[in-house]
Design a protein that fits this description.
- The chain is mainly α and about 180 residues long.
- The protein has one domain (about 5-175).
- About 75% of the residues lie in helices and about 0% in strands.
- The protein contains five helices and no strands.
- Helix 1 (about 5-30) packs parallel to helix 5, helix 2 (about 55-90) packs antiparallel against helix 3 (about 95-115) and helix 3 packs antiparallel against helix 4 (about 125-150).
- The longest helix is centred in the middle third of the chain and has 36 residues, at about 55-90.
- It starts with a helix and ends in an 8-residue tail after the last helix.
- The relative contact order is 0.16.
């Protein structure tokens, strides 16, 4: 089956995003002294060490962790997978909609749950950023659902850009709240 032009660009963009994630992961592995030995990247300065979280900040971090690990990360992966499966193999807009509709709801409900978690003043901007990335994931799912409505696969490209930005924010926030934890793929 021949790829449409939009599907090609979506897969190309997903491939570029995957390569960027691998590059960042390799850089972090080598900077932490684990993993692949003593490779170094001359042009990248090491990230500044953040001070440890205060007791109040730790309470917020621990309250957010189950939602983050058990709901948000897996849902983000399913969102990306749904778009890539549609573009590469499936082209069944109804099946795409069946996968995306509950994911969009998960991201919406997660926004409310994160906003309800008590955060100390120092963590409120971070909590707001987390809610904003959940909004981006919800918008990404909504954009992909437009393919089922009008058949225009260009929606997948727009959705992928939103999802990629949300994933980048998720990594940055995770570095603050859960340093040393695994990074989402």
């Amino acid at each position: 089956m021949a790829f449409s032009r939009n599907a090609f660009f979506l897969l190309f963009g997903a491939g570029i995003a995957l390569l960027a994630i691998v590059a960042v992961s390799l850089q972090r592995e080598t900077a932490s002294g684990t993993g692949l030995g003593h490779m170094s990247v001359a042009h990248d300065a090491p990230a500044p060490k953040l001070p440890p979280l205060t007791a109040e900040e730790e309470v917020f971090s621990e309250a957010l962790w189950p939602l983050h690990q058990e709901v948000v990360e897996p849902s983000a992966g399913r969102l990306a997978s749904a778009g890539m499966t549609f573009a590469a193999d499936d082209h069944d807009a109804n099946r795409l909609a069946v996968k995306l509709t509950p994911l969009r709801q998960v991201f919406h409900e997660s926004q409310e749950k994160v906003a309800a978690i008590s955060a100390p003043p120092s963590m409120q901007p971070l909590r707001d950023r987390y809610v904003a990335l959940l909004v981006l994931y919800e918008q990404s799912a909504t954009e992909m659902l437009e393919v089922a409505r009008d058949g225009d696969e260009g929606h997948l490209i727009n959705a992928q850009a939103k999802s990629q930005h949300a994933a980048e924010e998720l990594i940055k926030i995770g570095d603050v709240l859960w340093p040393g934890e695994h990074k989402p793929n």
